[in-house]
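Possible regression after last week's pipeline update?

I re-ran a chain I had predicted before the update to compare outputs. Posting the input and the new output here so someone can diff against the archived version. Not blocking, just want to make sure nothing changed silently.
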Amino acid sequence: MVHMVYQRPRVIADSNIPFLDILLGNEVELFLLSPEEITPCVMRNADALITRTRTRADAALLEGSRCSMVATATIGTDHIDFDYCRSHGIEVVSAPGCNAPAVAQYVWASILTLMSGADPAGVTVGVVGAGHVGSIVERWGCSMGYRMMVCDPPRAEREGTGIFVGLATIARECDVITFHTPHIKGGLYPTHHLADRTFFDALDRHPVIINSARGPIVDTPALLCALDEGKVSHAVIDCWEGEPDISLDLLGKADIATPHIAGYSLAGKTRASIAVARAVADHFGLPYNAGAVEEPSPAPEWVTPDMIVASYNPVADTVKLKADPSDFELQRNCYPLRPEV
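New output (post-update):
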């Protein structure tokens, strides 16, 4: 629905989201601010907010404002109070799938780094959550000759169980387990602490555990115990509970540890910016600068190990975070966007 305004809409946006000035041009009154600068006072006279995960869009920020739209340039929406927005007529849009190829690149770069020289045919990789990211991870794994298993109960319910397995099967049979679910606390399929002590106790093959989805999907104390007891051989952590105040114990024990940058490719950021700018233009009935920024290509259908290894090495990012974990936010916000595969 077009939201009518009688002047250029005032849009507050996170300054770490690229290309918004080019995409929205002179159609809006655009203010690019750091997350710390996006306050209730700033929002009071704003018509829209374009944000990332570091700004919580809820009553504390939006109450009393004229904001009619929240657009997040991210896949995740944990930081948005949907009930509040719905009850106040605030449209919410996100950018699902925008960084999926980059996260898949991160996952496979990590696997190939930790399992260098392993015969793919002898490695079983379990993908928990087969949405935008998980589907690419699974497809690329098949193209490289890995044995792939996929666990996605909501999809299994909708599509049948033929191509899906349960979490117990993943725990029993997989050498690598990578999580790609949203963070859900309630309902039929909660994912909060999906990887808990019970899950880790059920592991049979001392797998690599990868979390590049949401921090609270993995129970940090339970993972630390599993690492200490040898139930988990290696941990790859990009998403942490309590970010940016991350567990230093887990940081020390993780083989690959990065500051929530798995999806930080130039193409991924570009897709997200295009998606939210288009949504803002549609919301206010404004012209959209289509073509002002070239839309990136989709993920390739297949990859080779050489393609992955040449495109990204997670070790440098790990060394940097381990050297100065107090700079988690700075390293994340100033991350040099990498090319995708």
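Follow-up from reviewer: compared with the archived run. The mean pLDDT is 96. Marking as no regression found.
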